[in-house]
Structure formats: C-alpha cells, structure tokens
Amino acid sequence: MNIKRQFPILLAAALILSAIPAGAAEIPPDATIAYVGTYTNAQSKGIYAFSLQTPNQADSQTITFAPLGLAAQVTSPSFLAVDAKNKFLFAVNEVDKTANQVGGGVSSFSINPQTGMLTPINQQSSMGKGPCHIVLDSAGKNVLVANYGGGSVAVYQVAADGRLSEATSFVQHQGNSVNKNRQEGPHAHCVTLDAANRFAFICDLGLDKVMIYRFDAQAGKITPNDPPSVSVKPGSGPRHMTFGRDGKFAYVNNEMTSTVTSFSYDDKSGALAEVQTLSTLPEGFKGNTSTAEIAVHPSGKFLYVSNRGHDSIATFSIDPAKGTLAFIEAFPTGGKTPRHFAIAPSGNHLLIENQGTGNIILCAIDPETGRLKTVGTPAQVPSPVCVVFVPPTPRE
C-alpha cells in the first residue's frame, strides 16, 4: 500500500504537536478549512484542521496556511471525504481491528464552520481490514469504502443528520496477480464514481484490475457490471482513479510500476478502454519508487500524480479530444513520501502531504502551463496522509 511508513523522530514530533493550538477559536470568515487525515501513533492524534487564505486573490503567490488545532481525536483517519453541503466529514479508520469487531472503521463527524472543529456522530465497521479510501456519491446519500487489507468494498447510507447506517452492500474480491509479495490476494485501493452516479470503479492493486459495478444510489447497492472489469499490465498495481473534466476519459495511477494509464469511458455501458500508459518519472530514473495520488486540475487541462521515493509530483498536459497525456515536469515535493496531495477549491494551489517527513508543502499552480512553484510556509503535521477542503460558509 505504500513503500515505507516513515515518521518524524519523537523530539520533532513533540515540537510539531506543541506548535498546533488546542483549537475552537473562530476562524476568519473568508478562510477555507483544510482537514488533514493522519496515521495515529505516538506523534499524531487524529484529524487536524488548518485555515487556508489567499489575501490577494489575483496573486496566487500570497497564501497563508494556519493551524487551527486537533479537530477530532480518532484512530488512523487516513482518508477523508466531505459532503457537498460541507456539513459532514467522513473518515476511514485504517486498522485491522477496532474495539468491537475485526476490521477497520468508518466514522462520521459534523463540521463547525466557525471553528473548524469536528463533533463525532457515529462509527461503523468497514467490513474488512485496512480501509484506505472513502468517497461520497454526488447526492451525499451514500459512502463507499475500499478495504485494502480485506480486498473488499462496502457501502453505507447517510442519514440527514450525518449518521452512517450499517453496511447496505458488501463485495469481496477474489484472485491474485503476478507479484507474489504484493499481489498474493485482492487489495481494493480506491472507489471512484462516474459523474452520473451510475457506476462505481474499484482499483484493485492485488488483481491488476479496475473492477466495475453498477451503483444503485437509492438502495445503497453495488452489483457486478458487464463488462465486470478492465485489466492493466500484469504487475502494475492500480491504485487510484480519477475522471477528466468532461467525463469522457479516466486516469489510473499504477503504484508498482510508477505509470499512469488513460482510458476512454463509455458512460452507457460503464466500459473502460485503454488509450495510453506513460511513466510518471523523468527519463533515466532507476531508484525505488511508487505512485500514490492522482488528480485532474479543475480546468481539465492538467493531471498530477505523486511519486514516493522519487518524491515528486509528476505533471502532465491533457489532450481534451484524445484523452492522451504529455509529460511536463516532476516537481520536488520538499519532503519524503508524498502519500497524497490536493488541489484547493480555487484551483490556484496544490498542497502536498509528505508522510515520511511530516510536512505539508504549498504550491502555486501556473494556470497556463500547469507547472508548480513553492509558496508560503510549510506546515508541520505528524504522518499526514490526506487533505480535504471546506470552502468559506456565508455568515450572518
């Protein structure tokens, strides 16, 4: 699932935590809240909140990223999701066993938009070991979770108050692939929904397949599609998937070979057809590395993939007609093991979470070229894994 979990030394971690305030102070009304999910250990305690501000909207170089404190103390909230109305936050608890059952957890929280603090609502079993990815459907009525260790997927319905139901659907993957160390069994790594909310796609690293399911949002059910999957090159290890802006093409980063595959998408049948596969690394690099996160810029012009080991963000331009990619650069992340990155709602900035060195780097995005440039001051967070945003809420 990752090349190596690295944590700051205890002294550095103590300094990091002492620098993060206790929280609950009111934040500026024009600030975006950034929530950071982490792996909890002696250094990290759960989900941390930050305020993100650009005082001069016309100048992407001006940005502040200020800590708000520990928003919620919870076990290993490694991946997060926020509903479309920005009322609730959902997190996986990436462990193999919780207090009451075998398997990880899925937790829901209500968001205080004035302080950024989170109030727990409830938690359910993820129905499998090591839940590592979570997504909401477009209506905010269902949460879908991928269990990496368990090689399975579960669906939960969301009540009006943010409470999660017990699992309404569960699918257990079967099989393996060519790498006996990493692909001895199924490893569901990501859930992606299409724009119409009709199909769910599960990247399974252990099977070298993107599994395709029909999604019934009303009932909270997924059922195998025809075709049931699309394969990548054996030993690639598909990790995460995202769609292009117009939904005609999809992109999958392959963790084990540090490549990205473009697919054309048939939104009537749910079928994916491979268009192109490219390396995410500069020509000639031979070191130990793997990919982690993938995202398309809101403009639809650029695609980004993180490389762990090479410790860079690979930038590609997107041909809107063909869906093909062209390599632009591999931008250094200013730390080790960029497990995740996220593009701010404005589209002007990209935040890189370096899990190994416990820092978050802020970058400005050039709207014409897609290239990155480091701006602002790095933030220190122990073992950061995921960032999600809540835009400013109008206040009376």
Describe the structure.
There is one protein chain. The protein is mainly beta and 396 residues long. It has one domain: 7 Propeller (Methylamine Dehydrogenase, Chain H), CATH 2.130.10. Helix content is 3%, strand content 50%. It has 1 helix and 28 strands. Strands 3-2-1-28 form a 4-stranded antiparallel beta sheet, with no helix packed on it. Strand 13 and strand 14 form a beta hairpin. The radius of gyration is 19 Å and the shape is globular. It starts with 9 loop residues before the first helix and ends in a 6-residue tail after the last strand. The N terminus is likely disordered.
Summed up:
With 396 residues, the chain is mainly β. The chain is 3% helix and 50% strand.
The largest β sheet comes out as: 4 strands, antiparallel
Content-based structural category: mainly beta
The named CATH superfamily: YVTN repeat-like/Quinoprotein amine dehydrogenase
Query: What is the helix tally?
Result: 1
| Cα separation of the termini | 45 Å
Q: Strand tally, please?
A: 28
- Beta-strand residue percentage: over 45%
Give the tally of structural domains. Answer: 1
Sheet with most strands: strand arrangement: 3-2-1-28
Radius of gyration: 19 Å
